[in-house]
Specification:
This protein has 198 residues and is α/β, with parallel strands linked by helices. It contains 5 helices and 9 strands, in the order E-E-E-H-E-E-H-E-H-E-E-H-E-H. It holds the Pfam family NTP_transf_3.
């Protein structure tokens, strides 16, 4: 029987935060949420885990995460599709001896460490594991390291979503998977924080 257990120390993280916040109207990743920039709050979900490597793919104006142990890739020039950000992050992870790659979004600030642990516990070396709420599959997602080339080869603005069709979905409370695209989403996230633990 194949051992499916996964240690965080064999996992690399790619945090995507290079979007230009066009629907938000200003740099959303720097917006305060519960006293912290949105991007930092998203990054902190994985802060306690002893990950092998942390890479953040960021726009030039995004807040730095270097103090949280992230190597930063700054994408300049016209806004690239999410797949280009993902490819840059996968390249930056390098040829480390990883078992898995965790992909997270910088504009999902309410993801909990407990949910990331649920993804790790469900790890399957043969296929990805992803989040699911309201029948929709989404990041955070955990990919076997053998998917690195496929992740780097995705096209368009859907990032790795095409690969999630065959992923094992892990149900989550929709509130922790809130994706902040517009000012109203930020207000909703703040209200959820004010109401207590998500």
């Amino acid at each position: 029987m194949q051992d499916k257990s996964l240690e965080w120390s064999a996992t690399g993280l790619v945090l995507l935060g290079a979007g230009r916040s066009s629907r938000f109207g200003r740099n959303k990743l720097a917006e305060p949420l519960g006293g912290l920039p949105l991007l930092r709050r998203a990054a902190l979900a994985a802060a306690a885990f002893p990950l092998a490597r942390r890479v953040a793919v960021l726009a030039p104006e995004a807040p730095s995460l270097a103090d949280l142990g992230f190597d930063e890739v700054r994408l300049t020039g016209p806004e690239a599709p999410q797949s280009a950000s993902l490819a840059a992050g996968i390249r930056a992870l390098g040829p480390h001896d990883l078992s898995a790659i965790l992909v997270m979004l910088g504009d999902m600030p309410l993801v909990t460490p407990a949910h990331l642990e649920a993804l790790r516990a469900a790890f399957d070396p043969a296929r990805p594991v992803c989040s699911m709420a309201s029948e929709a599959r989404c990041p955070p997602a955990l990919f076997p390291a053998g998917f690195a080339a496929e992740l780097a080869g995705q096209q368009g603005d859907r990032g790795a979503r095409a690969l999630l069709a065959g992923a094992l979905p892990i149900a989550a409370d929709p509130t922790i998977l809130l994706d902040v695209d517009r000012p109203g989403d930020l207000a909703a996230a703040q209200a959820l924080l004010n109401s207590g633990p998500t």
